[in-house]
Amino acid sequence: MPPINFIAVAMAFAAEFVVDWLSQMFLLVMFAGDRLRDQMSQDEYRAMVQNVLDTTALEPWAMACGLATTVGGAYLAARIAKRIPYYHGLAMGIVSIVYIVVSSLGSFTWQTWLGILVTIPLSLYGAHLARRQMPAEMQ
Predict the structure, then answer these.
(1) Number of domains into which the chain is organized
(2) Cα dist. 120→27, 45, 55, 87 in Å?
(3) Which of 34, 78, 116, 120 could cross-link to 130 by cystine, CB 3.0-4.6 Å?
(4) Nearest CA-CA partner of 48 in 59, 57, 37
(5) pLDDT tens digit sequence for 79-108
(6) ∠ at Cα 135 (9, 18), nearest 5°?
(7) Within a domain: residue 62?
(8) What is the extent of the structural domain holding 130?
(9) pTM above 0.90, yes or no
């Protein structure tokens, strides 16, 4: 197996994680509107988040953003590594699946299963997009 640049994968995953977190916070603020206020207790915040999830279209938008960052993260890993893009895309997909499983805390919902199912294909697609922009000797 060709060597994988683990630093490229780690950097791309960190960037993907930050963009995911920022997009989720932006969507929450956007969908929560005036329900979000200063000085909320942790219980009030949890209740507000659950109310937003139950009454708005936050989840589909969050899923779409997460799928987009999966493609972007694999693209970034392949571009940083500058070689064997599909291996780096696959590595990003595997790291992302491990993160999904660990962060789900054992409560596998349909969103968790969908994330696990589409992560590898989307990561390979991101790597494919990166490969199209690489010179032939780097592929």
Answers:
(1) 1
(2) 25, 33, 31, 11
(3) 78
(4) 37
(5) 999 889 999 999 999 999 999 999 888 788
(6) 25
(7) yes
(8) 6-138
(9) no
